[in-house]
Amino acid sequence: MHDIKRVIQVNVSFTRLWDGRIDHFTRNGLNPEIVFDARALERFSRADFSAVAEALRKNALTVTFHAPFVDLSAGSSDPAVRDVTRRRFEELLALVPLFRPVTVVAHAGYDWKRYEYFRDEWLANSLAFWSWLSDALNREGSRLMLENVYEQGPAEIRVLFEQLSSRRVGLCLDCGHLTVFGAAPLGEWLESLGGFIGQLHLHDNLGQRDDHLALGAGRIDFKTLFAFLTSNHPSPPVVTLETHHDQDLEPSLEYLKQIWPWPATL
């Protein structure tokens, strides 16, 4: 039987790993995508981070990062907000040599309700920030992935990927977010940004709330997504299961195993 767990990541906060969840990940061979929020960056010492990183390495688990995002804005017009954002990412960068993440996911951060009136400034600030971060990650052998959240459609952030393509910045496509927050269908996202996809965040919803349900429990058409990927990507991107409830992990793994289009990789 194919072990889908070997080729995907599972979203988990660093705090939960520290508080005991790490045993579940190492025992079951689950590769973590570790979420670092502000509380974790301030609560834990470098020795704490090193201990978790060593445990994951001893069990030969692949690691990806999810960067902090709450109240941060790389494109903000306020220099103080950008300074705080940079400080949090500098703290995250200090952990990259310990964990050696394959990718670091960050929110692209465009929200037309907040930034439409100074979009050019938001774009310039964002490009400067992500250029700095991607260069730092590339030096460490990692790769930056920018994730869609509140964007209405791909046109709002396509320029980021066009301008940052030489720095290996990829799209972390989150179909759950585009379903509940966006106004453009999945097909339009794939047509516009499909060539930039380097990672997927997979979870389901019914189109009303960002529920992060088990795969197959909502309305998202994952088969269309994977059909596109197999036609355009000879090997799979980084794939992260981002369900928020422990009981949804196994059903999601089973669902994903049934639709996984790259059998030779398992």
Notable traits:
single chain; TIM Barrel; globular; 266 residues
CATH A-level architecture: Alpha-Beta Barrel
Give the name of the CATH superfamily.
Divalent-metal-dependent TIM barrel enzymes
Give the low-pLDDT segments. Answer: none
Please count the beta strands (DSSP E, at least 2 residues each): 8
Approximate shape: globular
Output the CATH topology: TIM Barrel
Q: Main beta sheet, described?
A: 8 strands, parallel, barrel
- Structural class label: alpha/beta
What's the mean pLDDT score?
95
What is the gyration radius calculated from CA atoms? 18 Å
Number of spatially distinct domains: 1
Subunit arrangement of the protein? single chain
N-to-C series of helices and strands: EHEHHEHHEHHEHEHHEHEH
Count helical runs: 12
> How helix-rich are the residues, as a percent range?
40-55%
What share of the residues does DSSP label as strand, in percent? 5-15%
What is the CATH class? Alpha Beta
Distance between the termini: 9 Å
Strand order of the largest sheet: 1-2-3-4-5-6-7-8
